[in-house]
Every structure is written in structure tokens, then in C-alpha cells.
Amino acid sequence: MDIDALKNELKDIADKEQAFILSRFFKTGKGGYGEGDVFLGIKVPETRKIAKKYYLLGLKDIQKALDDDIHEIRFAALVVLLEKYKRSESEKEKKDIFDFYIKNIRKSINNWDLVDLSCPQLVGDFLFDKPKDVLYRLSLSENLWERRVSIISTFYFIKNRRFDDTLNIAERLLQDKEDLIHKAVGWMLREVGKRDIEAERDFLKKHYRTMPRTSLRYAIEKMEEEERQEFLRR
Known about the structure:
It is a single chain. The chain is mostly helical. It contains 15 helices and no strands. It has helices spanning 3-12, 16-25, 44-51, 59-66, 71-87, 91-108, 112-127, 133-139, 144-152, 155-159, 164-173, 179-195, 197-207, 213-219, 225-232. It is globular, with a radius of gyration of 19 Å. The protein starts with a helix and ends with a helix.
């Protein structure tokens, strides 16, 4: 198996009608966050099924796929990368894959589904028992996708009941200008609340009057209606 075989398998099941729908959904028009992205029109389960067969591909081949203009090919490359990471037998292998991922965020991991698919299981997992400096650096980046990686990667920490980095990075991103960051911050706060509602409440009591409305609405979505309304009155 090689990278051309992976690309050809995906192209063989392209769906023009679905590609048009996805292009609009992922804001590929001028000025959109996905401007210029190209879609084949393949559903996620189909892409995953094909990609997982190629876990033996090396990083050079994965890089070729990540450099491709077609969204589903980049998605498939990340599925392969995750498979390689999960199957890694040494810390060095995992570190090489982590470094490779971080290097590719700006140019290739450049839509919200690509970020959300990959960074918790890879970046979050790798950094769980290590210093988190790279996430704090990414949270200050001018690049939208690096900032989204900084907060969504902490989903792995949340699942393991560690909330401090999520709350600290969320605080840094509260005044971000991008709606995709507002949604990401609210989503991660909601996930904290599912496991420790007091931790989420304490954060919201401090920030709810000034945080973006989108972040707030996402964060309080699972709360009782009376408490939701209390936070929405400001």
C-alpha cells in the first residue's frame, strides 16, 4: 500500500452533490474560515474505514497526504497518523509523531473537524504527563487552528479529570475574535461541568458578564433552565 493507493480509493467514491454541500458547510467561499478547501464529498465513516488500512504508511507519505488540497485526503492522513500514534511502541516514536503534528497545524490541519478529530487523542495524550508549555504558546498564536488546538487538546485532560489547563487556556481565549474559538471554549467548559459542575460554576461566575455570548451559551447548555437563565441575565 502507498499514498497514491489511498488517494485513489478516496477519489473512486467521490460524490459531487455531497461535495457541494460540504463546501458550503465548511465555509470554503471567499473570506470563510475554510476558504479554498476542496471536497470529494465522502462521509466520515467511509473515509475512516479506508484510511485505517494504511497505518503502515511512513511520515513522508502522510506528509504528502497532508499537503494535498483535498479535505478528505488530509482527514484520512490524520486518521492514519492517529493509528500510527496508538500503535507506537516507544516514547521516541510518539514524540516524533507529536512534533510532526505540531509542525503541520498551520498549513494542513486547517479546519475545525481536522483539529477536533486529532488533537485530543494525539496532543492531549502526549502532553498529559508532561509540561503543557506548547499549548499555552499555541493559545497566543495569530493562527486560528493553532489556538483551537490549544483548547481542544485539553479534552483529553478533562476526560481524565484534570481541569486546570482547560480553565487557564479558556481564560486566555475569552476575548478571541473568532466564533470557532468561542464555540470551542464553551464546549470545553461544558465538558468540565459534566465532571465537576462546581469548577465550571466558579469559572462562569468570574467571567460570565464579559465572555462571548456564544461561549456562555455552549458552556451552560446542560444546566437546569433556572440556572441557565441566571447566567444569561447580564
